[in-house]
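in:
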């Protein structure tokens, strides 16, 4: 049985961003979906803290994707505002490599911020984007995460376009990464979920499949990497948008083509539709990052 959706809400102060009133209405609508989790991307809105408090009152228990450069006072203030889970980014256990990706001294500062959160007894989650450069570091990253008693490790398998300097994983490399994650999950007793790699279920793992992504302007998409929005929460109820064809078609295994359509895991996996579209132009084509050959002919 599939779990309730994950809501990812982008709250940056961008042109045409939802007003405070519209944001409150959006939070009310989030609650109607009874989401498994709500992840709020850190933004620079002046009303950020009051939105967190309101989300907390609606029993949404939002997690905040943290910027690396935060001090103890900000961690404590965010906790007081209703942030009861904090998500930190670790893409490498190499200080030099992490700093190259996220800015000077970011590795040490991120670990320090995680310690602040741990001192405040705030549950910690960690996010990692898999690349060719860090496949062999996954076990070491898992050990760092375990040392902080993180409640969950979210591992993203990238969808094109990739950042400058990064290369797309091959399907065999993705298989190696998934095997490493499955091994780390058993060895470290760590809860791991993949994003845009639902084929982790073949290794006994779990994946976040059903995502409702809300942009800062209110556009609603079936995932952060989805190519087309289903509509805007300003003008249509969220319940209507998530039951629209844009969402329903992605969850219907009968739409899958090629080996994904023949695969015995098609109902529980289905491949990354965002990656299939980005790399082939066909939303229902086989996921290019999966090398599995289905047993069903």
């Amino acid at each position: 049985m599939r779990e309730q959706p994950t809501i990812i809400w982008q709250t940056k102060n961008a042109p045409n961003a939802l007003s405070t009133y519209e944001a409150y209405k959006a939070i009310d609508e989030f609650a109607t979906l009874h989401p498994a989790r709500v992840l709020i991307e850190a933004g620079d809105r002046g009303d950020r803290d009051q939105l967190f408090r309101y989300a907390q009152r609606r029993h949404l228990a939002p997690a905040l994707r943290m910027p690396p450069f935060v001090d103890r006072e900000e961690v404590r203030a965010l906790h007081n505002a209703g942030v009861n889970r904090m998500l930190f980014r670790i893409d490498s256990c190499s200080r030099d490599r992490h700093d190259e990706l996220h800015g000077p001294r970011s590795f040490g500062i991120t670990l320090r911020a995680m310690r602040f959160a741990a001192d405040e007894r705030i549950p910690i989650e960690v996010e990692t984007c898999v690349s060719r450069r860090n496949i062999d570091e996954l076990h070491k990253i898992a050990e760092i995460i375990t040392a902080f008693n993180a409640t969950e490790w979210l591992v993203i398998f990238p969808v094109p376009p990739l950042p400058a300097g990064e290369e797309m994983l091959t399907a065999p490399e993705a298989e190696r990464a998934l095997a490493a994650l499955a091994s780390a999950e058993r060895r470290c007793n760590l809860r791991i979920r993949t994003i845009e790699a639902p084929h982790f279920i073949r290794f006994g793992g779990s994946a976040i499949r059903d995502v409702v992504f809300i942009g800062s302007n209110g556009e609603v998409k079936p995932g952060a990497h989805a190519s087309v929005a289903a509509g805007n929460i300003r003008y249509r109820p969220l319940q209507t948008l998530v039951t629209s064809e844009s969402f329903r078609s992605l969850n219907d295994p009968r739409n899958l083509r090629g080996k994904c359509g023949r695969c015995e895991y098609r109902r529980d996996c289905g491949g990354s539709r965002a990656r299939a579209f980005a790399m082939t132009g066909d939303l229902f084509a086989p996921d290019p990052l999966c090398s599995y050959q289905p047993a069903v002919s």
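note: The radius of gyration is 19 Å.
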